[in-house]
Amino acid sequence: MKKRFSILVALALAFVSVGLTPALAVDERVVDIVQVTWAGASKAAITPAEVVQLIDSDVNARWKSYTTLVGDTKDRVISFVSGKTVAEPISINATMPCNGSAASDFMYQTQSKAYSQLGISDYSHRYLVIISPNAGCVWSGRGGLGSKESTNGILVLHDSASAFVIAHELGHTLGLGHSNFLRCDSGSKDGKWGSDCKAVEYGGVIDVMGNLDTKSQLNTYHQWRMGYLDDSQVKQVWSSESVTLAPSDFAAGTKAIFMRDGNSAYWIEYRRANPAMSYKAGLVVFRLDPPPVSSVVSPNPEDALADEFSTEIGTDVWMLNLDNYRYVLSRESGSMTGTKASLYSKNITITATTSDTDAGVSIIKKDDTTPPPTPVLIDVKEWKFPALSIIKSGYEDLDTAVTGFEISVDDVISDLPGSPVQGWNPTYLSPFETPVTVLVQDLPEGSYSFALRSIDRAGNKSAWSKQVKAVIDRGHPDVTNDFSVTSANPQEVALAWTGASDKGSGLCATNLVNPFGFITQSSSNKTAPIITMTNGKSLVATAQVFDCLGNGISGDFSANASFLRADKSARTGRWEPASNVYGVGALKCIGKCSASLTVQGDVSILTGPGTSQASIASKNVTTIADSKAAKIRISSAVKVGPVKKVIRVSGSNFVFAGIAYYSTRFTDAFEIDRIEPANDSSLSDKTQLTLSNFGFNASDFSQEWTVLPMNNGTTLLDPSLDLCGATYDSEKDRTERRQMIAIKKSSPYTFLSTEVVRYSSKLVVEQAQKELQNALAKCKIDAGFTDTTGTFIPYSFAEINDLPSGLLPNGQRVLVRTQINTGQKAQQLLAFYQFNETLLTGLYVIKSDEAGFTEAEVAAWLKVAATMATRLKK
Fold first, then answer.
1. Domain of 388?
2. Domains: count for the chain
3. Is pLDDT of 698 > 80?
4. Which end of the chain, N or C, is less surrounded by CB atoms within 10 Å?
C-alpha cells in the first residue's frame, strides 16, 4: 500500500444485509472507544455508547460474515466486540489534523493517552476507535494499515455514524487495501493506465474495501492477503488452459487465477449470484499492476501527493467492468461480473460457464514465441561477492518468466538452472515464484571465457551475452595470528597483519567490528592489512578478512600494544636528544651506550642510523645492522612472552627511538561469505552523495546490517530537531537533509540512525544549537514535556561521563542520555548532536526497555560520534 494510513471517502451509503453460514470457533477481538474534542468543535455525529452498539451488532456480524466460508473446516472466523470506553472526551490543543504525518501522530498520541486513562499498559491485542467531530477532512474514516498477523490497530471515525465505515477501516488494520475500479473513458474494458484508463479510488465496490456499503464476501485477493486462501488455491496460467474455479465464498477448491499479460497482472475469481447484491453470477477480473499517481482519480487530496507505487505486491486491486457496471460520484449501478473477457493486449480471451457450485473457465492465450531480452553481465571487476547476481536487471521475460540459463565456458555449452534472486520480495508480476538469476557462486571454478543466455517458460532462448574473461576462486583467505610493527609513537602503534593473505584474488577488505556491529577499522591492503592500536589500550573486536571474490574468514580478535620512548629507559653512557625526525623522546648515543626497558609479548626495537643489538638476561636476541639513512628502522619481532622481562639495547653511535611491544589473539575462526550491501538509489543524487560523507553508510557496519535512507529521509518533510516536543524555528531554514537507519534481524535497538542537515547559514546553525540547548534545559527542569494531546511524557536524564577525544568542542555539541516514559512504554535514548559550519550531524540510538544502556554501550556510541565529528570537520 502506498500510504501508511488508509482512508475512506464515503459520500453515499446504501445498506443491505446477507445471511450468515454457521461459524466454528471465533477469533474475538476487542475494540475500545475514545472521543476527542477541541475548542470550537461541533458535536460528534455519534456517541461512544452508540459506537458500542454498532460494534457489538452490525460490525461484529459483518466481519463474521466476511470470514465465514462455505465448507470451512478451520477455526478462523473473526469477531469484533466492544471493550472499554474512555469516560470523557480527550481535549486536544487544535483541530484534528486530516493529512500527513500530523494525522498519524495524532492517532498514536491519542491511543497512548486513551490507554493511559483506561489503565491499560499492554494494548498489543486491542483495537481503538477514535470518534472525531467534523474537522473539515474529506474522509469519514482513517485506519492504520496492518497485516494479516496484526492483532491491534487504530481507526478514526470522522463525523460519521456508519458501521460500514468502521468495518472498512478494520479491514485496513488487517492489512487490506482498497477495492478500486479501472474505468476507461473510451468505453474499453481494459487498457494502458494513462489518459484513457484511470484508477478510480474506492470504486470497486464489490466488497467492504470499496466505499459503498455492502456486506458481500471479501474478494479472493484480500482473502489470500489475510491467509484465508492458500497459494495452492491460486492457479497460475501461462498458456491456453481450462480451469475450474470454486466460488469466492467457498473455502475449498481453486478459487483464483493469476495471469500476466506483458507488464500487466490479473487476478480472476468467480462470484455466485446473490439476490441481495447487484451483481450477476460471473467472473470478476482485477488488475494487480498499479497505476501511476497521475492516473488515480480520488476525492482524497493525499492520493495526488502520494509516492508512486513500487513493484512489490500491493494491498490494492483495480476491478474491470465486464458488464454494465457504473460508478459515478460514489454511486453505483449495474453488474461488474461477466462470462467473457479480453485482456489488455487482446492476446488473451477468457470465457466461463457458471453454476451454483463452480465455474468452468476457458483461457485462450496466443503462443509466446518472443525470446527473453539479451542478458547484460555486470563488470567482472564487481564480482566480489559469492551471492552476487552477475546479470543486470532487464533480463526478465516480458510475457512469462525466465526459468533457467545456458552458459558457455571456453565455448563449451551446458545448462545452468540458476539460483533464486536473493532477498526477493513478491511483486505484482511474480507474487508466487521467486525469479532465478546467476550468482558468482553458481559458476565453475577456474579462469575461462564466459557467456550466458536465458530460457523462458515457453522454451524461448535469448541471444548470448557478451563474452567476458572470468576468474572464479573458491578458496578462503589464510589467516594466522602473526603481526609485525609498521610504526609506533607515543600515541599509537600500527601493526601489519602478516598472517593474513590470499593466494588467489588477494585481500580486498579487512574489518574490525565492535560488539554493536560498527566497523571501527578497515583496511583494503591486498597483503598485510594494517591495524592501529592506541598506545597502552586494549582492543577487542570481531575480525573479518575477505578476499576480492568475497570469500572470508571471521574470528575473535584481541590485542594490546604499547610504545616506550627511549628517554624513559634506564641508560648507561652518553646520550643526547636526537633529531625530531625520529620522534618525541628519541635519543642519540655518543660512543658506547646502553638503554634498558621492561617489556612483554612480542617486541620490536625502533632505531635510526648506526648499529646496535638487543639482549635479555645477557643473551643476544637480535642485531640491528649498521645504516647511514636518517630514518626510523623497525627490527623484526622478538618474542619475549607473557612474563615481563628487561630488554637491553646497546651499541655505538646509534639513534634509539624506543620499543614497541604487543600481544595479539585470533581465535574461533570460521569461513564466511561477503554479502553485497543493499542498493542505495539515493546516491545517484549529487546532494545526497555529498551528505553521505558525514553520516552512516553501508561500509560503516558489519555485513549483517542494512543501512539505507529512512522513509522521507532525503527530504525536508520530517522534522530534524524534535527533542522534548519543543518548537524549533530553525527547522524552516533547513536546505538539505539525509537521515539513515541501520537495521538487522534481532537488533538490540529499536532505532539506530544518523541525520545530516544542512542549514541556510552559520547563523541558523547557531540558532538551531541554541534552541536545542534551551529545549534540553527546560526538559530537564520539567522532567519531561506535555504533548499535543495534553499527555505528560516523563524524561529521566543521566550524566554522560568519560568523553572520548575527537568529539567537537563543548560549544559545538549537545549530548543527551535519557529514559523516555516508564514501564512498558519506557525507551532509552542516546542523542549526540554536533554542529560545524552549516551542518548538523545527529546520532540517535534507542532501546525499548527500562534497563538502560550499559556504560560500555555509551562509550562505544560516543566513539562512533567521534567518528562522525571527524567527518564533520572535513
1. 380-472
2. 5
3. yes
4. C
